[in-house]
């Protein structure tokens, strides 16, 4: 088993915490990854934020009693005034009307420009509370406390916040970086199995796009991971966060194209999610299938060999992720892919692997090759 | 009559345009001030934006036919796809629900990350459309075409965008800088008298806080200004924009305290507006009265002499602005001032003049002095 790179261990609030730095000039921040660290949260927050006298903990109803209440108590112990708000669990809470309700609650709770939002939950809460923090008096500080695996390895890092319009996901939002990301793997103990496995889809993605060593580590340690052995889980999260932090540090606002590599598998995945009906597949499951389609497309375009696909297939399958999608319908998926936000002027563009640990942005891809890649993944 | 400083005339799209630069590194932009320049708008927009294939003109119902339609036509002439949307005129359009409706319209009109918002209207439209531009796919470019005097000298410059909550103005928004501010004084021909005079309140403010030469010019030329003589109006707008641009360039996000000088008279004005009932006074009228209260407070605290107040009083009065407010009620105003966003931790802080052209931030001001200053302005 590979061990943690020493450069991933920083000055951290507890001896066994791993710290990953997101380097963004005056918007830099630290991601702490550790287990059973609730009692250390308040002092870490204080250290990251400097002065903090009023915190608004925002969470969802499922996470509230399990985890958010305990964190709120820790903050209160150090003399911070804490208010807490729980929205209904699930994607529908990422709506404009929930956004307004939340902002009105913030105002009523006496928030001002020095108040701090602490988002405790999965990606829904991070995105919603993050956008509320970005917008309240044109921006107050916020802390991400991700509680789903997906949120730990993806949505809590990088500053993308936002909500949905009825017909389009994540259409409204802001780039707004947190002041701290606090990952306590203990909370995963209550995360449903399917959510955990789904999150592994994004973990494997980092191996393919950015980190061949990590991919190898995953091939050797998937069993420990799906057994949720703590050391393995912490390592996988830290490695994933390190990859995401590197990419975000180079292309914070998705302007240079570098950040696009994070979308490996995603153009296909979004089309699968849209055509299968949202909710049929979990996001990480759709990403797994999307990566399979992307790898097949890369082979078709002679960007990589069959071995890459075989290794990816085996790893996804070992982790319990789907590798085919019976209901994939190329005719329905194509128009969705052409409307994808990441598509330039209606031309099909994909992030495609060249070898494990490395991808290219490939523009102007032939439709028939795309259709083939979809049909082979049924 | 003082003439334009030569450093205010830049490379501009027409020989008689004045250009003021807002210096904000990669978010820098130009404010063009000129008259009867509609035919030049499209090429100036293209020059400022580089590629532009889809524009969304956002306006209000009153401004739509008068001015926005003509600008949309100019854009169409150069081959840009243009969509146009008019919201009801007035402050109620700065609501979360109007914000959502607007974003859904943007999506339905086929907007993507390269689309551009052009806000044609007063401060309501600039604030609403600017926040929509800031939020749509986490930020697309936008152009300010202010049509009220207040919007020309204040709200269109500096990147503050936002909407209201039912109980708090401008509580939700973003700092989002335009790519271009296009001021055509011709549109003022249809602006109601009271709006024009109200805008002069902010113009005079710049003289007091930042520009003694300009204050002198105003003392000599107020008659030309209230007669809306074009040269005088252009000069006053350019000088006001230059002051605002300087301040914003030093303190974009209101963090250093420098930007606070723009709030001269405003802590009083907000309390007047809130206690008199919104709509009784126009904003610039409340600012005029607020500046009178602030000058009296400065005298009381021995920061400046009586002469400053006398000159300010005469200029405001000549311009047709109110200098007293019969219904001012110190008991009602004080609690509002203590809740003001600009107040630090409940302590009363004011921007107070030390001489014409120069102000200080004065903290921890005695309540009785504030009450006195209010009572003397009745
Ligand atoms: N901002 C970004 O960069 C980014 C990136 C990827 C995804 N996202 C967004 O993230 C969202 C999906 O995230 P998600 O999968 O975390 O969804 P989620 O927040 O809805 O969480 C999934 C479910 O798990 C529950 N849950 C979370 N943590 C738990 C825990 N520790 N124990 C028990 N239950 C728990 C939640 O209540 C919810 O029902 C989507 O809205 C997506 O758009 C954002
Ligand atoms: N963003 C900032 O920095 C900033 C600064 C100051 C004020 N503001 C905001 O600006 C708003 C007030 O601005 P405003 O006074 O321009 O209000 P406004 O946009 O409501 O315009 C006032 C009225 O004049 C009409 N109008 C505008 N231009 C016209 C023209 N050329 N001819 C005829 N009618 C015209 C409008 O339809 C409206 O009825 C407030 O919401 C305030 O919060 C923002
Ligand atoms: Zn994803
Ligand atoms: Zn004002």
From TrEMBL, chains A, B:
Q: Which PANTHER family match?
A: 3-DEHYDROQUINATE SYNTHASE (PTHR43622), 3-DEHYDROQUINATE SYNTHASE, CHLOROPLASTIC (PTHR43622:SF7)
User: By its UniProt entry, which CDD domains does this protein fall under?
Assistant: DHQS
Query: Domain 3-dehydroquinate synthase N-terminal, which positions?
Result: 85-197
The record's section on InterPro entries has: Dehydroquinate_synthase, DHQ_synth_AroB, DHQ_synth_fam, DHQS/DOIS_N, DHQS_C
Task: Tell me the name of the encoding gene.
Answer: aroB_2
Purpose of the protein: Catalyzes the conversion of 3-deoxy-D-arabino-heptulosonate 7-phosphate (DAHP) to dehydroquinate (DHQ).
Tell me the residue numbers annotated for binding NAD(+).
89-94, 123-127, 147-148, 160, 169
Q: Which GO terms describe its molecular function?
A: 3-dehydroquinate synthase activity; metal ion binding; nucleotide binding
Q: Which UniProt keywords apply?
A: Amino-acid biosynthesis, Aromatic amino acid biosynthesis, Cobalt, Cytoplasm, Lyase, Metal-binding, NAD, Nucleotide-binding, Zinc
Protein origin, superkingdom: Bacteria
Q: Where in the cell is it found?
A: Cytoplasm
- Which reactions does this protein catalyse? 7-phospho-2-dehydro-3-deoxy-D-arabino-heptonate = 3-dehydroquinate + phosphate
Question: Which annotated residues bind Zn(2+)?
Answer: 202, 266, 283
Q: Which Gene3D superfamilies match?
A: 3.40.50.1970, Dehydroquinate synthase-like - alpha domain (1.20.1090.10)
Instruction: Give the family, as the similarity comment puts it.
Output: Belongs to the sugar phosphate cyclases superfamily. Dehydroquinate synthase family.
3-dehydroquinate synthase C-terminal domain boundaries: 199-343
Any idea of its EC number?
A: 4.2.3.4
What's the protein name? 3-dehydroquinate synthase
Mind naming one GO cellular-component term on file for this protein? cytoplasm
